[in-house]
Amino acid sequence: MSAISVGQAIVLGAVEGVTEFLPVSSTGHLKIVEGLMDIPVDDDSVVGFSAVIQVGAIAAVLVYFFKDITRIVTAWVRGLRDKEERYHHDYQFAWWVICATIPIVVVGLAAKPLIEGPLASLWVVAGSLIVGSGVMWAADQMGRHKRGEDDTSFKDAMLVGSSQILALLFPGFSRSGATMSTALMLDLDRVAATRLSFFLGIPALTGAGIYELKDALGTGTAVLPLAVGTLVSFVVAYASIAWLLKFVAKHSFNAFVIYRIVVGLLLFGLLGAGVINS
C-alpha cells in the first residue's frame, strides 16, 4: 500500500511548489508537513516521492525561463561546433552550470546513507532553519548588490553551485537560501542572485528526481499520488517563481529570515512537546 494518499499528495505538492525556490527550505517544510500528517519520513517511498515531485517545480522553471534556457543551450551547441562561438557568455555559462553541478552530485552519492539517515532528523531541520537565517541575513547585509547577471564568472558559478551541498547535508538550510546567500556575498544583486540560483538548481534537482524515481515507484508509492503531487508542484511553483522575482527586485530577504526563525523555533517546540516525531 502507498504511504501517501492522493489528498496528502496535493498538500505536499503545494508545499513543494511554494517552498522549492523561496529561501525557506522545501525539504524542511516537506518533512514538517509529513510529520504532522504522520507520514513516515524515513520510508524509502516517501523520500523518493519528495524527490520526484521536485521535478514538477523544475518543470515550472523550464517553462518560465524557456527563452533563456533555449538561448543558452543553443549557444552551447553552437560552441561545440564553432570555436568562435566559445567566447559567447551563454556558451561559457552553460559549461559553468555543468561544472558547478558536479560537487553536489559527488557528495550526494557519497553521503546518501547519512543524508537519508541521521541528517534527516527534524531536529537537524529546525537547527538548520535558524542557522541558515543568520547566514542569509549576514549575506544580505554585507553584499554590495552591485553586480548583475552578465557580470557572473566561473568562480561565482562554482562557489554558488557548491553551496548547494549545505542544503543537501542539512535539510532546513535551504538550497535556494544557500545559493542566494553565497551569490549575495559575491556582491551580486538580489535579482541576479535569485536567477543564478534557479539555473544552478535545474540539473541538480532534476537529477535527484530521476535518481529517486525507482524508490518512489519500487517501494509502494502509487502512480496517481505521485502524478498529482508533481502536477500541483508545477502549477504552484510557477506562480511562486513569478512572485519571487518581483519581490526581490524591491525588497530585502529580511522577511524570509524572520519567517525561517519563527518556523525553526516552532518546530523545536513541537518536537520538544512530542507533538511530532523527529
Automatic annotation (TrEMBL):
Subcellular location(s): the record lists: Cell membrane
Q: How does it sit in the membrane?
A: Multi-pass membrane protein
Q: Which Pfam families match?
A: BacA
Q: Which UniProt keywords apply?
A: Antibiotic resistance, Cell membrane, Cell shape, Cell wall biogenesis/degradation, Hydrolase, Membrane, Peptidoglycan synthesis, Transmembrane, Transmembrane helix
| Catalytic reaction list | di-trans,octa-cis-undecaprenyl diphosphate + H2O = di-trans,octa-cis-undecaprenyl phosphate + phosphate + H(+)
List the molecular function annotations (GO) for this entry. Answer: undecaprenyl-diphosphatase activity
UniProt keyword Manganese, yes or no: no
Q: Which InterPro entries does the record associate with it?
A: UppP
Segments passing through the bilayer: 46-66, 93-115, 121-139, 192-211, 223-245, 257-276
On whether Hydrolase is a keyword of this UniProt record, the answer is yes
Instruction: Indicate the enzyme's highest-level EC class.
Output: hydrolase
- EC number annotated for this UniProt entry: 3.6.1.27
Q: What else is known?
A: Bacitracin is thought to be involved in the inhibition of peptidoglycan synthesis by sequestering undecaprenyl diphosphate, thereby reducing the pool of lipid carrier available.
Give the record's family classification.
Answer: Belongs to the UppP family.
Described purpose of this protein according to its UniProt entry: Catalyzes the dephosphorylation of undecaprenyl diphosphate (UPP). Confers resistance to bacitracin.
Listed name of the protein: Undecaprenyl-diphosphatase
Q: Which gene encodes it?
A: uppP
